[in-house]
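Task: sequence design from structure.
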């Protein structure tokens, strides 16, 4: 984040460290971070990858973490898992943090279905697939692309979906989740 009056960086949200080990470094870890979804009042979803290098400097494994980063740059891990070497991630790098920070809406790696991840790490694969998760409207509703001509307002806890016929819905982008006071 940048202070608009000075241009100085005040916090680095979900940023890969600049100084770290490189491939081939024995017994080292290489970190990588990616922002996912839209910023909300609770923060933003971040996908962190930690690649472990063994004694010879060769790849020896990977641990990935889906976490929420709040606006003080404090990480709140939701889910950590081994990835690679035959392991499959439970979710893709496509998660959206709810405005209250209690859960994330993600896409399952196994079947592309909407998967809810609680702040305690519990995953619930809903079995429902959508063309895309666009973001949270509020703490209880998601905007999803149902098909190229329909958007949907989804209550992920009940599965209740209200569809909205929108020409070229497949070209719609959600760019913000507004705080409740607005």
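Answer:
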């Amino acid at each position: 984040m940048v202070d608009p009056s000075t241009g100085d960086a005040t916090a680095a949200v979900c940023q890969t460290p600049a100084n770290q080990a490189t491939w081939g470094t024995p017994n080292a870890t290489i970190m990588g971070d990616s922002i996912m979804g839209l910023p909300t009042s609770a923060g933003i979803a971040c996908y962190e990858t930690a690649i472990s290098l063994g004694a010879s400097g060769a790849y020896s494994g990977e641990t990935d973490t889906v976490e929420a980063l709040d606006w003080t740059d404090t990480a709140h891990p939701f889910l950590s898992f081994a990835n690679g070497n035959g392991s499959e991630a439970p979710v893709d790098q496509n998660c959206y943090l709810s405005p209250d920070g209690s859960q994330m809406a993600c896409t399952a790696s196994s079947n592309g279905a909407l998967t809810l991840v609680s702040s305690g790490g519990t995953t619930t694969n809903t079995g429902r697939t959508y063309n895309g998760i666009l973001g949270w409207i509020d703490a209880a509703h998601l905007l999803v692309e149902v098909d190229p001509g329909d958007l949907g307002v989804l209550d992920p806890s009940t599965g209740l979906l209200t569809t909205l016929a929108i020409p070229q819905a497949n070209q719609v982008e959600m760019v913000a989740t507004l705080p409740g006071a607005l």
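The mean pLDDT is 88.
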